[in-house]
Structure prediction request, 332 residues.
Amino acid sequence: MRKLCLFCLAALLSVAVAVTATAAPAYRFKLAHAQPEGQNNYHLASLKFRELLEKYSNGQATVIIYPGGQLGSDFNVVKKVQNGGVDMEIVAVQLLGAYYPPMDIYSMPFMFPSFSSFVATRHSDFHKALVSDMEKKTGIKVMAFIGFSFRHFTNNKHAITSPASMRDLKMRMNQNKIQIATCEALGASAMAIPSPELFSALQQGVVDGQDATLNFSTSQKYFEVQKYIALTYHQLSGTCFIMNARKFSRLPKEIQDAIVRANNEMETWWQDYSVKEEDRLLKQWEDKGCQVSRPELKPFRDAVQGVYTQFADTVGGTAAIDTVRGIVDKNR
Prediction:
């Protein structure tokens, strides 16, 4: 009787091990992003994608999420995705221009006055051709693509009320030539500082301020080391989900389909969430005692017109700019 019980126990354990082995995902992807783990936009989107991927792949695929720049700066992780060292990344569209300059059409100042104009452009034939060409030339597959949040300037010296009031400010900017040129056209000095080092740089006065979305600035708690925020709306920052194209192409069709379906649903959720976040995030800055200024925007728009002349060829020429402006005009 004792031997029979031991045999049954061993059989049950063997079944349990087999079930566990069967349930383990066959495809595990590295997904990186720069925001800290927690209730912030990038991380919530990562969790949503993982949930949907596991659902649509019937448990055969999942992602291991590396938040907070664990695998390197967001700019450098793009290169790792391109080379296959990292499978996927959620990253600001503005950082892709260094790898594929025409993508910087989305970095032009005051190009998108609303979320709806950005979304319409994202679903246009123009955008589809753009990301297809990028994939062919860089090996980076652009998937989910949203209008993430408007960029504003923060600083520690004084309120920004006009371009003239920016002339004495040292601003940290992304490693993006158009964003740097925009900052300089508005009169400020631009400096490049990696995102993980920016909080201490602001705290120590290495730079006076920075340009970022409300979402990113809030997730990094910059309101703890900044006194002023100017709602300049100078760029509707795009954020996207990228993947190594070669890795994607080698996957079984059912896993490819699950990734695409999970991406599409995540994008819809993510865009809606981002729109709703703007007012709530601004209130956090006000509650922390930061002074909010709402300057007249026309002088800012006028000051950056030279950026369009300077970078027209980079982003595909005036024809590309006119095409996007045409889409925007119909979807303000």
Remarks:
- The chain has one domain: 27-330.
- The chain has a mean pLDDT of 92.
